Amino acid sequence: MSPAEQPQPSRTAAVRRPTLNAVAARAGVGRGTVSRVINGSPKVSDRSRAAVERAIAELGYVPNRAARSLATSRTDSVALVVPDAQSRLFAEPYFSEIILGVSAGLSSAGMQLLLVLTGDETEYGRLAGYLAAQRVDGVLLMAVHAEDTLPDRLAELAVPTVLAGRRGEAERLGHVRADNRGGARLAVRHLLAGGRRAVATITGPPDMDVARGRLDGYRDALRDAGVPVAEELIAAGDFTEQGGRAAMRELLRRRPDLDAVFAASDVMASGAVQELRAAGRRIPGDVALVGFDDSIVARHIDPPLTSVRQPLAEMGRTMASLLLEEIAQRGTGQRGVVLPTELVVRESA
Amino acid sequence: MSPAEQPQPSRTAAVRRPTLNAVAARAGVGRGTVSRVINGSPKVSDRSRAAVERAIAELGYVPNRAARSLATSRTDSVALVVPDAQSRLFAEPYFSEIILGVSAGLSSAGMQLLLVLTGDETEYGRLAGYLAAQRVDGVLLMAVHAEDTLPDRLAELAVPTVLAGRRGEAERLGHVRADNRGGARLAVRHLLAGGRRAVATITGPPDMDVARGRLDGYRDALRDAGVPVAEELIAAGDFTEQGGRAAMRELLRRRPDLDAVFAASDVMASGAVQELRAAGRRIPGDVALVGFDDSIVARHIDPPLTSVRQPLAEMGRTMASLLLEEIAQRGTGQRGVVLPTELVVRESA
DNA sequence: ATGCCGCGTGGGAGCGGTCCCACGGGGTGA
DNA sequence: TCACCCCGTGGGACCGCTCCCACGCGGCAT
């Protein structure tokens, strides 16, 4: 045996896995043919295809992703970016369920999911270049703020991007969101149908699109029912429990006669419950309450909270397919997709 | 300009990014030197290093991960595998918080996090080969069942692996877990200190290590206090709300005189609350209750639940560092790490 | 019979890094 | 002065795949 024929010792301790070359040799065909079989090209004779498939099975061959990626300059992976993950926001089932949907939507297309949780600001700033350099095929962006510039930088770098939610009405990038306005309308209509007339609302931060949508829905429902909108029945929260309590206290001060509250999130609703209790109001006897999100707390607070449900997993799946579409052919694909919400009636209203 | 000098049109629409070659040309050095600078080799003169660093900055160069990975047969990425993600279990803050810690622990080492959520069984079965073929540098495995063989197959394939929790006392693989036994002991000791004597427990599935640990802690605390363990005060749940209700009902039937319950999870505790209410018992007046996990429901059920907290984020961080250690030098690294738990006292006990 | 077409095919040339060998030049000791 | 060493360096070979060009061959029209 000449030196050249001796197998080179591998550098790493890892098991040496069969290459496409090995498959070709075993199947008695060329590399090109094996590649064609793997990639499902029709230009392969049945004979060769069978031989290759047998060789693949016998060797337990699986293509090396790095090599393929280097050759094609695709990666078959997308990044899911959650900014600001520290702020235990990430622990909200909101994210998990969307991720679940995303994962389902991607894996059926053979795509990998890269989870990128960014901590501080500066880290987030570096992200655009980083993502482009990693050559992920696309990016899913969660929880973008109105003034966030990352989406635009990604767009400049020609990285296909899909957002969860939009930054504002004029969002140019592809995105998926729930019908917040419609959901809020459902909630308030339900309160009105229950005979309530002084319906207050605790909103989210006014600079967030979801918050505005839910407030608009509140107004819609009142208008539809011919009930005038009273501005003193509207108080701003910030999607936190504390914010919910403060807003509720303020509302009770302004309008002690209120008989219903629509809170733009379950967490704020839970704060409202505490404040209502403290003020001696019974729920739903004195004050009916509806939340938004149908999160886990909705089922567990006392009384169980009527809430608006968003189809989170489906939103994730939709995000995945929008992104795949955009990756396949840039510039195609619908801009924004709105998914319907639904009212889950429990005991609080 | 000869044809050979004309830039080749790039195949994809993406912007062509500078390569290491371009940096070398611009800096007036060889490829090797650039590579050395990037990888922090000391064998580079200050002069060359400065020139290279300038060129890198000017071109905005970022190394191509696929190429590096092909050459080194490392990937600088690890997979986090969550089996069975369908079962909305994944939505538990448990996972999110651990993932948060994992992400923090990895990103500081420049490692990427690949999230792999498996649905059905067959998919899970293919996973070992798949993971080895993707050449992730390591695997983090969540929620392994006692009879799960994936860890062993990964070990055979020489893939560094760290588990969240262990399959049993004899776990050979690296893993991180909370001190379940100690936490349970804290919980039950707290109940005894409150003057309770007929302390029941709702356990998890007996084939799960966490469940056994928490049951052992329950026994420990009673023994420490000289209170005999009564088997009829022990009922098995399955970590679901339904299971908790059923177990609580059974316990009330067996021992109507019980005055305290330690539930091995908050979710089961929440089921127990419902059943206790239905039986007309007040909490904590008639029956004191302690849960486990300090999950979000603990804060929101009525009354707020005293519960045992596990340091989830830290568990994630520890998993990451164990894995990195194992990747750096196989076979080193401690087998199992146990992190302390802590009792969070609220109003239920 | 001869040309032509087109199908299946083999294999060369990259993709962009790392690894390592070989080489030039300045310092050191004999 | 000469041999030796070591340090910094350039660049060839290679990682495993895809892309694409060129080629052989059988079937069809001429």
Automatic annotation (TrEMBL), chains A, B:
| Hydrolase as UniProt keyword | no
Record keywords, A-Z: DNA-binding, Transcription, Transcription regulation
Give one Pfam family.
LacI
Source organism superkingdom: Bacteria
Xref: SMART domains: HTH_LACI (SM00354)
Task: Quote the Gene3D superfamilies the UniProt record gives.
Answer: 3.40.50.2300, lambda repressor-like DNA-binding domains (1.10.260.40)
Q: Taking every annotated instance into account, which residue ranges of this chain make up the domain HTH lacI-type?
A: 18-72
Q: What is this protein called?
A: LacI family transcriptional regulator
To which species is this protein native?
Streptomyces achromogenes
